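input
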Amino acid sequence: MNATLMAPSTQYQACIDACNKCAQLCQECFRMCLLEADVKAREHCIMDLVDCAEICSTAACAMSRRSFHVNELCSSCATICDECASQCSKFPQEHCKMCADACRQCANECRKMDNMV
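output
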């Protein structure tokens, strides 16, 4: 087998790491938001957390296998991460702040990929 086909996706690694971190923090924030007293006020945020975790996981997997659709997935991931960061920023809890930061970092990495691929 050709060694290049087996080489790690180093050009994608920073974005893969950012996507995985964002997915994890979105899942954790989702769980914590469900336990907050104002859960109804967080409905939009909670839905965005689920969407964000899903697209981040999908984008990381696609980059890992060097999918032909990395460009489109990273573009969508950046858009959804921006929306999730905006929603999380509306709430004062530390888990929301950490999630918003991870979403912003992921969006930035995804934009780099969108421009690179």
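quick obs: The radius of gyration is 15 Å.
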